[in-house]
Amino acid sequence: MISREDDVLAAAEAWREAGRGVAVATVVETWGSAPRPVGSHLVIDADGDFLGSVSGGCVEGAVVEEAGEVIATGAPRMLEFGVADETAWRVGLSCGGRIRVYVERLD
């Protein structure tokens, strides 16, 4: 059986093969009420199009912004969002919890 995560990663590979700049964001750690489990993926292209989810909508916008820089520079980033973080209210994690997301360019 093919999972939704497999579909997202297959789309990332198809975008890359089509010559689009692509980044993959992966949930690497959660604590509290994070809505997506470790291993969840969000794939983003250089135009800001994306598929998948790392937080059910709470931090996707911020991750897409960071992914643009990762695609441009090739330098991966570890992002952390949570209620103790100054970005918590901006990205909507007011329900509690913390999430760490690793973003890397797909070459």
From TrEMBL:
<dbReference type="InterPro" id="IPR003777">
    <property type="entry name" value="XdhC_CoxI"/>
</dbReference>
<dbReference type="Pfam" id="PF02625">
    <property type="entry name" value="XdhC_CoxI"/>
</dbReference>
<dbReference type="InterPro" id="IPR052698">
    <property type="entry name" value="MoCofactor_Util/Proc"/>
</dbReference>
<feature type="domain" description="XdhC- CoxI">
    <location>
        <begin position="15"/>
        <end position="82"/>
    </location>
</feature>
<protein>
    <submittedName>
        <fullName>XdhC/CoxI family protein</fullName>
    </submittedName>
</protein>
